[in-house]
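Quick one: structure tokens for this chain, please?
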Amino acid sequence: MRCVAWDVVRRSVGLEGGVPGCVWAPAGCSRSPVVLLGHGGSGSKQAPRIERLASWFAGQGITAAAIDGPFHGDRVQHPLPAAEYQQLIADEGVEQVTRRMTDDWLSLLAHLAAASDVDADRVGYVGLSMGSRFGIPLAAALGTRLRGAVFGKFGLQQTASMHPALETPALITGAARRITAPVALYVRWDDELFPRSGQIELFESFASVDKVLVCRPGPHNGTHPDDEPAWCQFIARHL
């Protein structure tokens, strides 16, 4: 990725209701575009990938922001294994947790806009795996404010290694059909959590006219070296 041009100011944000977040802002830049970064399962708002992406965007004059997902990061006293946080999501109800996450993201965006830190009408999103699970409904809720999104490692089907209650194709399909902004979907061809057929079906569900499907060989946790720079360029171009 290119060298940064702006100095980056990183700060923590605590929203009403105990929503923990981080913001990476280009120093001295007001009302910049903003990209929201959703972390994957067992990650957090301070995951290494989030830090890399956020620093790149802020260095290019684009504010980046992240919040901890449900039962992750500073929302819990200690990191939880996948089976445990998946069970907690199932117990609360996936649709309820999804609504809560969408509201949390929108609250963060409103907070940043009220302080004139960002232009809330120019929003991008990057999130894979769990970041796509909760990012797709958020993207739909953003409507025309969303200028571009990168999703991946997620689909309308899942394998037996995931909690069965987390498979909600109707919820995700309904959201995808409301997204008209440009979308890039990254598929892991040998994904052991989300079969490729369900990932491709998800791609077909997006209403976007401008959408890109990128398939890479390998399992769920792999990432091609060219992918992160491509995600950044895709979002930056549309913001």
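The mean pLDDT is 95.
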